Amino acid sequence: MILKRRSLASSLIGGIPETQEMLDFCAQHGIVADIEMIRIDQINTAYERMLKGDVKYRFVIDCASLATSENNGR
Questions:
Q1: In the 3-class helix/strand/coil scheme, how is the chain assigned residue by residue?
Q2: Which pLDDT tens digit goes with each residue over 5-64?
Q3: Which of 16, 26, 42, 62 is the most buried (most CB within 10 A)?
Q4: pTM for the predicted model, two decimal places
């Protein structure tokens, strides 16, 4: 493997079946992620907060705000 510059890689997180099993387990037990929902027009503020370390939860962009911003010509 070394002389022919080949490599072997794997993942410890599993594949699609294992991911689905984990999602099903979380759904059955009410396990959810803590998030902070933001509108698309708040993306720059969210980025600045991230740079400052002022983020407690994962930011999630509200996709409904995408349609609103498109209709407003942004």
A1: CCCCCCCCCCCCCCCHHHHHHHHHHHHHHCCCCCEEEECHHHHHHHHHHHHHCCCCCEEEECCHHHHHHHHCCC
A2: 888 887 787 889 999 999 999 999 999 999 999 999 999 999 999 999 999 999 999 999
A3: 42
A4: 0.55
